[in-house]
TrEMBL record:
Signal peptide: none
Known catalytic reactions: N(6)-succinyl-L-lysyl-[protein] + NAD(+) + H2O = 2''-O-succinyl-ADP-D-ribose + nicotinamide + L-lysyl-[protein]; N(6)-acetyl-L-lysyl-[protein] + NAD(+) + H2O = 2''-O-acetyl-ADP-D-ribose + nicotinamide + L-lysyl-[protein]
PROSITE patterns membership: SIRTUIN (PS50305)
Record's protein name: NAD-dependent protein deacylase
Biological source species: Methylomicrobium album BG8
Length: 253
């Protein structure tokens, strides 16, 4: 599957960026948003559940839905792709993981310093003053889909606590975007894994990397708009392709 030239190019790289999207989390059983059959937006109005105006209109509906999603993440486990990405760091001088996902599966698999472009389900904050909020220890109540649940209150201003994710109409966290953009422009190799290539501005990262001379490698279960731009395109499950890649690297030693 992997040529020696391809493998040696990875080993010679001084900086590799791994950019992941919903497809890698889907392999752990976490629903995506755009899948034609099971996508979350097929069943819910995105602007009612993922926008500041939706939260203002019905805080209990939004908070309950995100607690349902957080429970799904807490019950999921990292898959072989997450573990392979963490292990890849031992083969290269520098590895930067950038994700569009709002779960913590990369961290639980052992990746350090993960940059979350779209925020995290595990780091909510006050809607009014922006103060951070820590979830109580233990699992939340059973979060059946569509369950209404009033959000906690901020200890600083008594404002409603909101999910720590990026909603429609909001900009990406400036620090996360700067880290991702700088890494894309400075890397030798850029992996795009499990991302549709449709969500901007995150979808611009492979373009930035290629413009600055990086080799672009795509791993995705289906075709994407990035297909014609990449140097290497592997279609299939990341949980199968990435472990095979690691084994091939190990075989060189």
């Amino acid at each position: 599957m992997f040529s020696n030239d391809f493998l040696m190019g990875l080993l010679r790289a001084e900086h590799i960026v791994v950019f992941t999207g919903a497809g890698i989390s889907a392999e752990s059983g976490i629903p995506t948003f755009r899948d034609a059959q099971t996508g979350l937006w097929e069943h819910y109005d995105p602007h009612a559940l993922a926008s500041p105006t939706g939260f203002i209109a019905d805080q209990a509906l939004v908070w309950g839905w995100y607690e349902w999603r957080r429970m799904q993440v807490l019950e999921a486990a990292p898959n072989d792709a997450h573990y392979a990405i963490a292990e890849l760091a031992s083969f290269v001088e520098r590895l930067t993981v950038v994700t569009q996902n709002v779960d913590d599966l990369h961290e639980r698999a052992g990746s350090c310093g993960v940059t979350h472009l779209h925020g995290s389900l595990h780091h909510p904050r006050c809607f009014d003053c922006g103060s951070s909020y820590a979830f109580p220890s233990g699992l939340p109540e059973e979060p059946a889909g569509g369950r209404r649940l009033e959000p906690p209150r901020c200890s600083e201003c008594q404002g409603a606590i909101r999910p720590g994710v990026v909603w429609f109409g909001e900009t990406l966290p400036s620090s996360a975007w700067e880290i991702a953009e700088q890494a894309a422009m400075a890397c030798d190799v850029f992996f795009s894994i499990g991302t549709s290539g449709l969500v901007r501005p995150a979808s611009q990262l492979p373009e930035r990397a290629k413009l600055h001379g990086a080799k672009i490698i795509q791993i995705n279960a289906t075709s994407t708009p990035l297909d014609s731009q990449v140097h290497y395109n592997f279609q299939g499950r990341a949980g199968e392709i990435l472990p095979a890649l690691l084994q091939s690297l190990e075989d060189l030693f």
